[in-house]
TrEMBL record:
UniProt protein name: Sel1 repeat family protein
Family: Belongs to the sel-1 family.
Coiled coil ranges: none
Superkingdom, natural source: Eukaryota
InterPro entries: Sel1-like, Sel1_AlgK, TPR-like_helical_dom_sf
One Pfam assignment: Sel1
PANTHER family: ERAD-ASSOCIATED E3 UBIQUITIN-PROTEIN LIGASE COMPONENT HRD3, SEL-1-LIKE PROTEIN
Amino acid sequence: GAIVMLQEAVDQVRGHSPRTNAPRFVGGIYFWGQGVPVDYPRAMAAFKIGAEAGEARCQHQLGMMYCDGQGVDVDYSQGRTWIEKAAAQDQPNAVGSLGTMYASGKGATSSWRRAREYYQRALELGQSEAVKNMQTLTSGILGVSPLMDKRVEVHGSSRT
């Protein structure tokens, strides 16, 4: 049926147009189990085709799957690589995800300043969660103190 047709479209994308939506659609069908059982390996395979073709939403989703260990072992390095590629294309959710990596220290060194920069950029790009993430960050809920970065910056600048 329709899923087979979409899968054929994904197979045709390999090495062709980076702007086709087929890999993202097929990946989503398997990732969220829309009409089929959830199948992370198949979702990842579809997202990877789109990601390698340069589709930012596929890059972000693939990166998140690596970070969350969905269909693979957790691999923050691989995850961050794909998320950074999507963020370089101003994909709002990818930019927000980088903020969360810096805020949580998972996949990046904890940095309130860097987290805030990414959350601000995500907000400017229209990411709906950016306001909540900024509020969470400034309230210290994520365990990253705004003062920690200040101490590091002051200490670092006093050496130079």
